[in-house]
TrEMBL record:
Ranges of residues in domain ABC transporter: 25-258
Keywords of the record: ATP-binding, Nucleotide-binding, Transport
Name this protein carries in UniProt: ABC-2 type transport system ATP-binding protein
Gene Ontology MF term list: ATP binding; ATP hydrolysis activity
């Protein structure tokens, strides 16, 4: 199977300048600047096969956006190899951009003051898409994303959900084999998210489109991606299937207790002393969540119920979001 993306020992460094204090410091800064090298992406290697849908995740500052910018040719790597669709992105810009679609949740590729369909027509010319190809492909896209009624409206009149659906359509005018999505569902309501996810699955199945998705919304990853690449401080700490991630770190149950009165964390740890239980604050008032192995569930419930007044209690499987949070907290590195 052909690789859509090949990355080998990819690194990106930035110079960070610091100012010295006081008037004398400012004067010195005129002649010499203090700086340190920050390694945003630190010798990462991975490949993505044509037709794969991969979640690229990490906390803010982990290096996700810097990687995407190198893969799309916006940034030049400090060192290492990057080949996307058989080309070096920053060197073969003009030919390369015709083979990718990009949707950045925070940035628009549509013209603000003109009707959506005028933006589409301009992009059609930019990408040199024939009338026949445009009609054949875009009718399906417009219909599936339900943006027909929006085509005559200027972009500035659209809601965020409407604009994001139009952005996605704009990125697909030239039917690229590879789609980069950076936070495509940020700030969108549930129904719009579902529509976008369904559409992405369809184009992946119909055209074998490769999709690299960065998002903070773990439910996007669960709905679309079988594989995740997890980044922390510029390094890959996990690259593998979502199922394996759950199997390796998803063992156990979450017990959520809502107490009748306020309770302190140290009191809970005293109550479960001697047991490997991890407590954290719940979202509601007086709610606490215990992370325990299945065999300890009865013992933990028995100790808590006999020690304090309980208003409510739930037993849940550990969510993917929780698993990922635990991996970051523990700094677990797995290939």
């Amino acid at each position: 199977m052909v690789n859509a993306i090949e990355v080998e020992k990819l690194r990106k460094e930035f110079k960070s300048y610091s100012s010295r204090a006081g008037l004398i410091g400012a004067f010195r800064d005129l002649f010499t600047r203090n700086y340190k090298i920050i390694r945003a992406v630190n010798d990462i290697s991975f490949t993505v096969k044509q037709g794969e849908m991969v979640g690229y995740i990490g906390e803010n500052g982990a290096g996700k956006s810097t990687t995407i910018k190198m893969l799309t040719g916006i940034l030049t790597p400090t060192s290492g190899k990057v080949i996307v669709n058989g080309m070096i992105p920053h060197k073969e810009r003009e030919a390369f951009v015709r083979t990718i679609g990009v949707v950045f949740g925070q940035r628009s590729q549509l013209w603000w003051d003109i009707a959506v369909q005028e933006s589409f027509r301009l992009l059609k010319k930019v990408y040199r898409v024939s009338d026949r190809d445009y009609k054949e492909h875009m009718e399906h896209v417009i219909d599936t994303l339900d943006i027909g009624p929006l085509l005559d409206k200027p972009v500035r009149k659209l809601s965020l959900g409407q604009r994001m659906r139009c952005e996605l359509a704009a990125a697909l005018i030239h039917n690229p084999p590879l789609l980069f999505l950076d936070e495509p569902t940020i700030g969108l309501d549930v129904l719009v998210k579902l529509k976008i996810r369904k559409f992405l699955k369809e184009i992946n199945e119909k055209y074998n489109t490769t999709i690299l998705l960065t998002t903070h919304d773990i439910s996007d990853i669960e709905a679309l991606c079988e594989r995740v690449i997890m980044l922390d401080e510029g390094k890959i700490i996990y690259d593998g299937s979502l199922q394996r991630l759950k199997a390796n770190w998803g063992e156990g149950k979450q017990l959520q207790f809502t107490f009748a009165n306020e309770i302190r964390l140290d009191a809970l740890y005293a109550l479960t002393n001697g047991l490997p239980v991890k407590w954290r604050k719940g979202e509601q008032a007086n709610a606490w969540v215990a992370h325990v192995s299945p065999s300890l569930v009865p013992e933990v419930i028995s100790r808590v119920v006999s020690g304090y007044d309980i208003q409510d209690m739930n037993i849940n499987e550990i969510s993917t979001e929780e698993i990922i949070r635990n991996i970051y907290e523990e700094g677990v590195v797995h290939g």
